[in-house]
Design a protein that fits this description.
This protein is an alpha+beta fold. It has eight helices and nine strands. It folds into two domains: 74 residues, Nucleic acid-binding proteins (OB fold (Dihydrolipoamide Acetyltransferase, E2P)); 159 residues, Recombination protein O, C-terminal domain (de novo design (two linked rop proteins)). 37% of the residues lie in helices and 25% in strands.
Length: 242
Amino acid sequence: MEWVDNAIVLGSRHFGEGKLVAEVFSREHGRYGGVVHAGRKSQPILQAGNLVHAGWKARLSEQLGFYNPLELVEPHATRLLDDPIALSGLSSAVSLIRAVTPERQAYPQLYDALIVLIEAMPHTEVWPAIYTRFELGLLSALGYGLDLSRCAVTGETENLAWVSPRTGRAATQEAGAPHADLLLKLPPFLVDPEAELRSGDVADAFALSGYFLDRRLFDHKGEGMPDDRRRLIERLGFAGRL
């Protein structure tokens, strides 16, 4: 049993003397663990967020297996060392995938969304909004997507401004106004990619995706969301970028 694919490093852990279990997320195979030899050469490769070329092998498919080769393709984590907020965003995205995706199940659209996010991170003013889209994509990939296409009350597709925390469906400004204190705000950029990004929109998007991540994924696991996500929001807030 074997496969070869490019993958994003999710992390690693010690596994006996001189070995590590590396966990990666590939487009065609999903989240996979495998044994690698620990050492100075492996440390820079296994930084979370790096793109690697991985070859996984095992005698039987249910075995842990090992990686050979595991070669660095793009050192994304290293390139973001001078931007701690972007590095925090990378850590948060990787932590979410590691926490909620089942092992050995492919999510090609989620992988593509992660690559788009990582490639956007050098663009300081753009990537936080893309990050929130990534979180909504994560929900969708796992079967908990929101319906932001039309108003649940009127069927209209314009002027969508609210989301029901119960159903995850959108509502127009007018339809939702009487119940505004019970609804979640829907920033325009999540519906219209060409919409202007306003002050507070990213914060509202984080609140929206965070609510459903918590209720639909982490509550079922009996866990809280990763600390990496909380730190990301704090750092963006301190920098005035929400």
